[in-house]
Design a protein that fits this description.
The protein is an alpha+beta fold. Helices cover 40% and strands 21% of the residues. The strands form eight sheets. The chain has an eight-stranded mixed β-sheet, with no helix packed on it. A five-stranded mixed β-sheet has the order 17-18-19-21-20, with helices on one face. A five-stranded mixed β-sheet has the order 28-31-26-25-33, with no helix packed on it. α16 packs antiparallel against α17 and α19 packs parallel to α21. Bound molecules: tryptophan and zinc ion. The site of tryptophan (TRP) has 13 residues, from β20 and α2.
């Protein structure tokens, strides 16, 4: 395989740079054709730097047009410059100012890293290594500098000029040009730099901090979309208040701006004082955005805002520490949502997501520790392991230390490291020191890849009145880590007595057991409870207190008992899922289910629906069977996605068809004429009603497909409309094709709604979907430079349509491989991300495995690949 320059970076090689850039003055002259960037970098050698040590600056696709030190132009022999770097061969051994000038072509920057144009707006994305595409620099997160930015641009094309920090000057620059000067007083790494220049509308508001400082808030967007930014603004103000309440963290500048852009590689970016967002995470109105969209906006607005303390004020020493800011900030945004909405529902959705995305990563060829120790392409490590497993680790810390102990640790972390670029070790030390505990073994969670498997054997001794749990943990090998150490696993638990109430004990031995938690810290433990009068039903891993796979299965009777009685809502949900999973796994393996067990599950589902103590949002999650990919991974090897699809369909019918009357009655009772509102109660009601609709459609209940068509046609909001469409398309109802066609005509002009159509189209398990996708991609009007469109179509297909992606004839694999080869030349980050959909391949049955391997090998031989795609591909084939 040929890839762009092969190189591996190791954590163990970390050394501080011999020079530091302490302040930066940038002057951008933005013209329609090109942008001139002049940089004045104030550089200081370290005390330990030896005379003659060269200063090596990063660059990426740059071209140098002038260079000087302290105002004197450099002779050619004094430096070496090419597109990928600038070396000053013998810099002065004192503070000096390096001046450079480069010319950029943002228009042709389809990688969307550095300075680029999105729908005419100039904007930047610098994390992790985009700043080196703007100017030669020490582009590493441990170089903190203060930035002053002057921008000059045509007034007609870019009346709005924004950068980090505070606006200190602006005015006319003659010839139809104007300028603005922004200053950010907080030293920051270059990845937090941002600039925006464009013709944008905006909404403004303000927030007064706890200490009484007034902060001006602005959200900038395409003209005409202003009213669609109100939910984002509301979310921002609630985030600011929450961080003060919950963590004592106030905002620190006088201005906080958000800009929505249409072309963006990820969700959003936490640039200091100037967050830049993918517009799909800003715009919302009831007839085009779903409840899921509203939820995503609230969550990501909060996430980026929370980075101001966890990421910006305290940043990462190097990119190996990425989860220092990301895992912690995801934990914080999860807590925000839990406090604002329903904690149980949030936990269940997050765990479902962890199992859908992170577990397969951790169990496949791309597995890596939350803190990796080597990488070839850092962009490939913005993963669900770093983000979501990173958040689980922080959550376990909070579970082990308790809320007060966790807060003490956070306070000490802020106190010690504000203004620094630091490490996971320093983070853990703050919690250890604040609580007087040792976290050395706990740290292994950050260093070890793979999902631990936790197995439990129980036994009850009626004569001795003792109850024993034998616990065992084992983490399977992952690429590069053949043997694993035991982790610290907090297992929240409870014992339920015969009537479902909590059961106490008179004594316990064998492991560290606190009132509601067993801490397993060795490979195995045997925990014995004494004074137990009856055999209890154990509820284990309550709230999913550790990111593990709980292997032991209770009997169906115990599971249904838990589904009915557990005081822990997470485990109530889990128990129902487990019953469905056991039936599905057995059926795929050839063991037909008994009518008795089906009836029992149907009855439990009916009871859940009828319960007066459970809320709608919870019921919507509980009335479901595990998804196909989770069934596949539970089976674990020789997966045949079509067989799983067929079994799951039959199971849906068997369990829910007998409940059709109840489901329909509940569906009708949930109908509401109230105008759309995104509050938790209304969202829960819609979620349950739409779940019932999809169960009716999927179980082919009489009249269900017509009901879905009717809901689609009469819906007063996008949540209800899209739910009806998705249920129909995924079940392939007779009405689905006409509904899809209608949706396209109705909404095709709104790109964010078009994405929903692309998603529903790509996720349909029917034959012909690949041909349809080819037709869509070949349309000359389809924007292959827009990541949202590409991910909605091909990303969805590779990640969420196992039947067609993993077709036995290999057509799905070939389609995605060809797509990756093509898009890699436009946007390597998008191509590499889509390619990760192949990570399931080693688990497939042998025919499909061979087909996947052939497609991957074909990609490997297709020509030069980017470092992004080459790195994913080589790990995919090696693992
Ligand atoms: N730091 C961003 C976050 O909040 C992630 C991100 C945004 C990103 N844009 C990116 C990462 C581009 C890599 C490349 O999570
Ligand atoms: Zn983040």
């Amino acid at each position: 395989m040929r890839t762009e320059t092969e190189h591996t970076i190791y954590l163990k090689d970390y050394t501080p740079s011999p020079y530091r850039i302490v302040s930066v003055a940038l002057d951008f002259r933005i013209l329609a054709e090109q942008t001139r960037v002049q940089a004045q970098l104030t550089v200081e050698p370290r005390e330990t730097t030896a005379p003659g040590t060269p200063l090596v600056l990063d660059g990426d696709e740059l071209n140098l047009t002038s260079i000087a030190i302290d105002g004197l132009p450099l002779v050619l022999s004094a430096y070496a410059a090419d597109a990928n770097g600038l070396t000053i061969i013998e810099p002065p051994l004192r503070r000096f100012v390096l001046e450079t000038e480069v010319m950029l072509q943002p228009e042709g920057n389809t990688k969307l890293m550095g300075l680029y144009r999105s729908s005419g707006t100039w904007c930047t994305q610098c994390e992790p290594e985009g700043f080196r595409r703007i100017t030669y620099y020490l582009d590493r997160p441990d170089n903190l500098a203060v930035f002053k930015v002057r921008m000059t641009a045509p007034l007609d094309l870019a009346p709005v000029l924004l950068a980090n920090g505070n606006l200190v000057d602006k005015g006319d620059a003659g010839d139809g040009m104007h300028y603005a000067v922004w200053e950010d007083p907080f030293p920051k790494p270059a990845y937090l730099f941002a600039l925006v220049a464009g013709d944008l509308g905006s909404i403004t508001d303000s927030f007064t901090t706890a200490s009484g400082r007034k902060v001006e808030l602005g959200i900038y967007c395409t003209h005409g979309k202003e009213e669609q930014c109100l939910w984002a603004m509301d979310s921002l103000k609630r985030s600011m208040a929450w961080d003060e309440r919950r963590f004592g963290r106030e905002y620190d500048l006088d201005i906080f701006n958000i800009v929505a852009v249409s072309d963006f590689n990820f969700g959003a970016m936490e640039n200091k004082g100037l967050n830049i967002f993918n517009d799909k995470l800003v715009f919302a109105k009831p007839d085009t955005a779903t409840d899921g969209d509203y939820d995503g906006i609230e969550r990501v607005i909060a996430h980026e805002y929370f980075h101001n303390w966890t990421g910006n004020r305290i940043t990462c020493r190097d990119w190996f520490q990425l989860c220092l800011k990301e895992g912690l900030t995801v934990y914080r945004d999860q807590e925000f949502t839990s406090d604002e909405r329903s904690r149980a529902v949030k936990r269940i959705s997050d765990v479902a997501m962890l199992r859908r995305a992170q577990f397969p990563e951790d169990g496949g060829p791309l597995a890596h520790p939350p803190r990796p120790d080597q990488y070839r392409e850092i962009n490939n490590f913005y993963t669900t392991t770093v983000y979501e497993k990173g958040a689980e680790i922080v959550r376990m810390l909070a579970t082990l230390l308790g809320e007060a102990g966790f807060r003490k640790g956070m306070d000490l972390y802020f106190e010690r490291h504000d203004g620094e670029a630091t490490t996971i070790e320093a983070f853990l030390a703050a919690f250890a020191d604040a609580n007087g505990v040792n976290l050395d073994q706990f740290k292994t969670w950050y260093l070890q890849a793979g999902t631990p498997r936790l197995s439990v054997d129980e036994s009850y001794d009626a004569a001795a009145q003792t109850y024993t749990l034998k616990l065992k943990q084992e983490t399977p090998p992952t690429p590069g880590q053949p043997s694993k150490e035991a982790l610290v696993v907090p297992i929240k638990f409870g014992l339920l007595g015969p009537n479902g109430s909590p059961m106490g004990w008179s004594g316990v031995s064998g492991a560290e057991v606190r009132d509601d938690m067993i801490v397993l810290d060795g490979p195995s433990a045997e925990v014995t409870f004494t004074g137990i009068a009856n055999r209890p039903v154990p509820s284990l891993l309550r709230g999913f207190s550790a990111p593990v796979i709980l292997e032991s299965r209770a009997s169906q009777a115990d599971q249904l008992f838990l589904a009915r009685h557990d005081s822990d809502p997470f485990n109530r949900w889990q128990a129902l899922q487990d019953v469905g999973m056991d039936l599905a796994v057995a059926a795929v393996g050839g063991t037909a289910w008994s009518q008795e067990s089906i009836t029992a599950l149907s009855q439990a589902m009916a009871d859940t629906l009828a319960s007066t103590e459970l809320d709608d949002a919870f019921k919507a999650l509980a009335l479901a069977l595990p998804d196909e990919s989770l069934i596949g991974r539970t089976i674990g090897k020789d997966i045949d996605p079509s067989a799983i699809h067929a079994v799951r369909d039959q199971l849906l019918k068997a369990v829910f068809e007998p409940l059709a009357m109840e489901l329909l009655a509940a569906y009708r009772a949930l109908t509401s004429a109230a105008p759309y509102a995104p509050d938790p109660a209304s969202t829960g009601r819609r979620a349950l009603r739409n779940r019932l609709l999809s169960l009716l459609v999927a179980s082919e209940a009489a009249g269900a497909s017509g009901l879905a068509a009717q809901q689609y046609a009469q819906a007063s909001n996008m949540t209800d409309r899209l739910a009806a469409l998705a249920a129909s398309a995924s079940a392939g109802t007779a009405e689905a094709p006409a509904m899809l066609a209608d949706f396209r005509t109705r909404f095709g002009a709104d790109p964010l709604v078009l994405d929903k159509w692309l998603t529903v189209t790509a996720a349909a398990p029917r034959d012909g979907v690949i041909e349809d996708m080819k037709g869509i991609l070949d349309d000359p009007g389809f924007p292959k430079t827009n990541p949202n469109r590409l991910r909605a179509l091909v990303g969805t297909f590779a990640m969420s349509n196992p039947t067609q992606f993993a077709r036995a004839d290999g057509a799905g694999f070939r389609f995605v491989a060809d797509f990756v080869a093509e898009v890699d030349k436009i946007n390597p980050q998008v191509a590499a991300r889509v390619l990760t959909g192949f990570r399931i391949w080693p688990m497939l049955e042998s025919g499909r495995r061979d087909a996947a391997k052939a497609a991957l090998t074909g990609l490997q031989n297709s020509g030069t690949l980017s470092r992004n795609t080459g790195d994913i591909l080589s790990r995919m084939l090696a693992g």
